[in-house]
Amino acid sequence: MPAVTLRQLLEAGVHFGHQTSRWNPQMRPYIFTARNGIHIIDLKQTQERLDEACAFLRQLVADGEKVLFVGTKKQAQDAIEEACGRSGQYYVTHRWMGGMLTNFPVIQRRLRRLLDLRAMQEKGDFERMGTKEANVHRDDLDRLEANFAGMVNMKRVPGALFVIDCKKERLAVSEANKLGIPIVAIVDTNCDPNEIQHVIPGNDDAIRACKLIVNTVTEAIVEGQQLLGERELREQEELAARERQEREAAERAAAAVPAASDGDGTAEVALEEFAGASAAAAPDAP
């Protein structure tokens, strides 16, 4: 069953592209028709591509990876921040700074600085400083919060990017492609789909359209998190079962060794026999 219906896509205005004069010819396969000088996107393809993107993201997250959402235009910010707050993914909604992916070690230092400043603020350190010094720290904190708040816990580059308006976010797209990070994106009729590995043809300018698609992929991500949790639980149960079996085997082996009762060396002999049997049963070293 599709993640969203054609009616939902239609009501959200996902089918409205840009003016025909502003189109990218590479988007021709995804365009259904033109009406009143506006390209109309083929919603059947949108539905199919959205399902494929959801399946990809669901499996990616189930494998333990994280997704970085990128959308700095006003129409995308609220939907992305709300979705990432619900799913625990990373996001950039203020400004993409060069090197966020390709120079990640430097970015990590800024993230650590942000965490340090937050801790200082919580402990009331700013109040104990001089006015000028405190203002410098507060300005630094505000700037870092604006640029990095959505990725403050990111320890390594993400497993994938989700992008709204890949033309506006071309720097993020370029960096991800350089590093071989797959990109899922809402691709409007003025964009180049060849730069995107998982194209979702659709309107990237309407708030309702962006929110519908963001919420849909977020549901897939949450499902992936549930699959990951179930797998980790199974692995923990299997490990506990193996440890229990090993413990029980050791207890049985210990019980099989007769206790020394008359000091005639019987226990020592039995221990030597048990050790010899264990060595013989052990696999040869490579």
Automatic annotation (TrEMBL):
UniProt entry tagged with the keyword GTP-binding: no
GO biological process, one term: translation
Superkingdom, natural source: Bacteria
Entry's Gene Ontology cellular component terms: cytosolic small ribosomal subunit
InterPro entries in the record: Ribosomal_uS2, Ribosomal_uS2_bac/mit/plastid, Ribosomal_uS2_CS, Ribosomal_uS2_flav_dom_sf
UniProt keyword list: Ribonucleoprotein, Ribosomal protein
One GO MF term: structural constituent of ribosome
Start-end of Basic and acidic residues biased regions: 238-251
Signal sequence bounds: none
Segments for region (Disordered): 238-267
Pfam family, one: Ribosomal_S2
Family: Belongs to the universal ribosomal protein uS2 family.
UniProt-listed NCBIfam families: rpsB_bact (TIGR01011)
Xref: PANTHER family: 30S RIBOSOMAL PROTEIN S2 PROKARYOTIC AND ORGANELLAR (PTHR12534), SMALL RIBOSOMAL SUBUNIT PROTEIN US2M (PTHR12534:SF0)
Protein name: Small ribosomal subunit protein uS2
Organism of provenance: Candidatus Aeolococcus gillhamiae
Source lineage: Bacteria, Bacillati, Candidatus Dormiibacterota, Candidatus Dormibacteria, Candidatus Aeolococcales
Annotated gene: rpsB
